[in-house]
Amino acid sequence: MPKVTLLHRSLEQNLEQLKRELGESSDIMMQEIELGKNGQLLSVILYTDGLADKNVINGSIMGTLLSERFNESIEAVTERTELLPLSKPFFQSMGDNTVIEDFETLYNSLLTGETILLFNGYVNGLSISTQSWKERSITLPTSQSAVRGPQEGFTETLRTNTAMIRRKINDPNLWLETMQIGRVTKTEVAFMYMKGIVKDEIVEEVRARLERIDIDGILESGYIEELIQDEAYSPFPTINNTERPDTAAAQLLEGRVVILVDGTPFVLVVPMLFIAFFQTAEDYYHRADISTLLRIIRFVSFFIAMVGPAVYIAVTTFHQELIPTQLLISLAAQREGVPFPAFIEGLMMEVTFEILREAGIRMPKTVGQALSIVGTLVIGQAAVEAGIVSASMVIVVSITAIASFVIPAYGMSISIRMIRFVFMGLAASFGIYGIVVALIALVIHLCTIRSFGIPYLSPFAPFVTGDHKDTIFRLPHWALSTRPKFISQNHVRKQGSKPSKPKS
To answer: Rounded to the nearest 5 degrees, what angle is found at the Cα of 293, between the Cα atoms of 291 and 294?
Structure first.
């Protein structure tokens, strides 16, 4: 446990230690002021420029310190320990104010935007809440857009994000717990859950994992995700992230826990199941039949993105008898001048596309879109004309790339991009047999994964009949009468509405 350094009675000693330990930083403002009718009490106002509200400091705090009533109270002090009890009520209207007795508390308050008052001859000071800094306004979510539904996303300010969730769920059972993580950054991390719906053991596990984190700094929620995830070496994510308040609210109502980190608009959601990475908030804003169709398209795209090039390589290399004669003749004609086998051909195209995709992300927005689209077309056409790759391989790689964009969760999309190369290698070595063996191994691996103790493939493995109302198919809202069995403590949604029918 670190040693606590108490404040000195001498104001000069306190200021010397502050300057020494803060490196005389130019943004740490120290404003000395003489109090009392005769200026007999020397004091100092400390605040961090850019984090504290100067209008409150120069107006309310300075006005209170220089007021006649405050100075009269100083004259009435007979013992040195009586100053703070007498002065604290003067600043209660400005927000929270607490007594500070040690330098560690002083630094934490000072560097989070609070204003500190120190008085000569007293071994404690006063911290006044004056936080105020520039923050990004609420805008459209950039990574999870929707045609229908709320068009607002989280910001980098923790308190704004918690307020946006509370605006969606006006219930006293929505509980919030906050802690500081990071020995150096002291980042504020909070997690929210619905008391009575979420399982208590899940909340305890989340709290325990967060408390076990011992690291210098937390700069983004990705730090937290990597430190608390169940599977460190699995390509599949066991924690989801979202920048949509409506998605976070919906997950809370399902019985999940939402983790918010100050300084990032991406909120973590735990525990997560495999099926949940293919669901979006917009699924619940459309009719059930439309949402079901969209989900089926996503699952089809998932398999295309994962095994599309591998199937093409396997069929053209080992199983030509599966190809119709006319198509086989066409493919043979295209590959007549190609010097590389199908695997090397596909590998070159996939790597080239991944490079173009990454370059498009890193380039400025106006240039990146043109680079990814034009670059793909130009390079693909040039490669075909040069005889390096066949036109059919360009088509397969293009369809695969487009299918990977259909997957809603970016983390799952990246996982599929990695697994795709493994399938391509096995297809080039063993054909369809290699793909089948890889799929079996993949399913076995998915069955062994857990997210905060919850089976990753549920409700498919283990099979839970009642939880299939909202998986690949989504039933109408009036039929969604229960929550997921493995996640929530209170399974019943208590929906009393039934489908409306016209009068006969």
So the answer is: 65
Query: Interhelix angle for 221-228 vs 200-211, to 10°?
Result: 110
Entry pTM:
0.86
- Token pair recorded at residue 480: 């969604």
Residue with tokens 């493994």: 422
The larger pLDDT score, comparing residue 287 to residue 85, is at 287
Q: Which residue, 181, 192, 184, is CA-closest to 224? A: 181
Tracing tokens 């399938």 back to the chain, one arrives at: 423
Report residue 11 as tokens.
């104001």
| CA distances (Å), origin 146, targets 152, 288, 472 | 10, 17, 19
Q: How far apart are CA 397 and CA 389, in angstroms?
A: 11
CB neighbours of 392 closer than 8 A, spacing ≥ 6?
A: 312, 330, 331, 334, 335
Contact of 245 with 239, CB cutoff 8 Å = no
Residue 304 has pLDDT above 90, yes or no: yes
Segments of 111-236 assigned E as strands: 115-119, 125-128, 174-181, 187-194
Confidence of residue 75 (pLDDT cuts 50, 70, 90): low
Long-range contact pairs involving 15-19 (C-beta distance under 8 Å, separation at least 24): 15/44, 15/118, 17/103, 18/46, 18/103, 18/106
410-430 helix and 432-448 helix, angle to the nearest 10 degrees: 140
Question: Could you tell me the maximum CA-CA distance found in the chain, to the nearest angstrom?
Answer: 105
The rounded distance, in Å, linking the Cα atoms of 374 and 113 is 48
- Cα–Cα distance for residue pair 164/271, rounded to 1 Å: 21
- CB-CB neighbours of 373 under 10 Å: 12
Q: Which of 140-144, 399-403, 466-470 has the highest mean pLDDT?
A: 399-403
Using one digit for the tens of pLDDT, what is the confidence trace for 349-380? 888 888 888 877 777 766 666 666 666 667 77
**pLDDT, tens digit (0-9, with 9 covering 90-100), for 166-207:** 999 998 999 999 999 999 999 999 999 999 899 999 999 999
Q: Can you give the C-alpha Rg of the chain in angstroms?
A: 31
Contact criterion met (CB below 8 Å) for 182 and 218: yes
Count Cβ neighbours within 10 Å for each residue of 173-211 and write b for 16 or more, e otherwise: ebeeeeeebbeebebbbbbbbbeebbbeebbebbeebbe
Amino acid at 134: K
Vertex 301: Cα angle to 295 and 305 (nearest 5): 150
Burial 320-353 (b: 16+ CB within 10 A, else e): eeeeeeeeeeebeebbeebebebbebbbbbbebb
